[in-house]
Amino acid sequence: MNRKKATLLLADGTVFYGTLVGKDGTNGGEICFNTGMTGYQEIYTDPSYTGQIIVNTTPHIGNYGTIDTEVESAHPLIAGIVVSHFSDVHSRIDATKSLQAYLEEHGVTGIADVDTRKLVRHLRSKGAMNAIISSEYDNLEDLQAELDKVPSMAGLELSSKVSTKEPYFFGDENAEVKVACIDYGIKLNILRNLADRGVYCKVFPAKTSVAEMEKWAPNAYFLSNGPGDPAVMDYAVETTKELLELNKPLFGICLGHQLLARACGVGTYKMHHGHRGLNHPIKNVKTGKSEITSQNHGFNITKEDISDNPNVEITHVHLNDGTIAGIKHTSKPAFSVQYHPESSPGPHDSRYLFDEFLALINN
Asked: Per the record, which residues fall in region CPSase (predicted)?
């Protein structure tokens, strides 16, 4: 298939040339890479990737098409994709459409025929940065002018923008356990995992007050994953502090983990290039066992802030770089992890965390 030419320009001036995939156009965001060998549709629809350009390290993308059930939200919120080889045909018999048709339908601009190995090595060295993809601009000065308009991810609040506008329910309304889930960019499979364990979920907008959620009389609370910088989410930190005072079970994933940490006096920081993929090794320091995890985050909690904090205990550690991957409150029924136990596709080693949450509720 003959494709239109496209250009990828990074904030440090590095340029890659390739061919257009998806929608003809120009779009920018923070560029980052994901090492997952499968699950591109789940990646593209994960709200945590809002405003980011995804570099898939797997060389063949699009070969199994797309299917309506393999999504984590209603539609992709990514700023674009960068791939090595883009497949125009797909072989999975139950696929509903090609990836090209899916990207066009949702207005996602991408670039293919890029040396993604070279690009990833560059990002590992220089760190995550803004970038722009275009099939419209030939002049790099004009493209640079468009790139300059893209906001930095540091200091960017996005969760309230992607959160549900109205509360909604998920699961069996006759279930004995009710969990209030605060939507900062929640993934559908989190709700599935809770519902599969006999939980009736009510999903609330990001800025809902604790008083409003308490009217539903939930047994516990869940803080979801989501995009953006937790350091500028004071409204969510204050909500988390109020939830801790309720002494009801509280579970946080990814951004929810960072919000719990900040509510306990632990800071957060922007990582050099983040953790994104299906193959990150985590050690559970309570059991001594390791688990292979799915991760997607560009921010983390500050390890040094925990040593002198009597309210926070480390439960999980990333074995590649020693970053904190899980904490619990020492006197409240609250815990969180910096990875995705609900991942699908991906490893299921961490699904036990949902069981621990239910045990906390039932005790």
From this structure: 1-177
| 62 has binding-site annotation | no
The domains of the chain, with CATH numbers, are: 5-147 (3.50.30.20), 159-362 (3.40.50.880)
The answer to whether the CB of 264 falls within 8 A of the CB of 309 is yes
* Residue 194 is labelled as binding a ligand: no
Angle between helices 234-246 and 255-263 (to 10 degrees): 70
DSSP result, 138-158: --HHHHHHHHTTSPPSTT---
Are the C-beta atoms of 291 and 257 separated by less than 8 Å? no
pTM score > 0.90 for this model?
yes
Residue 340 is a catalytic residue = yes
- How confident is the model over 215-250, as pLDDT tens digits? 999 999 999 999 999 999 999 999 999 999 999 999
Cα-based distances in Å from 238 to 68, 243, 313: 37, 9, 21
pLDDT in tens, 147-185: 999 999 999 999 999 999 999 999 999 999 999 999 999
254 catalytically annotated: yes
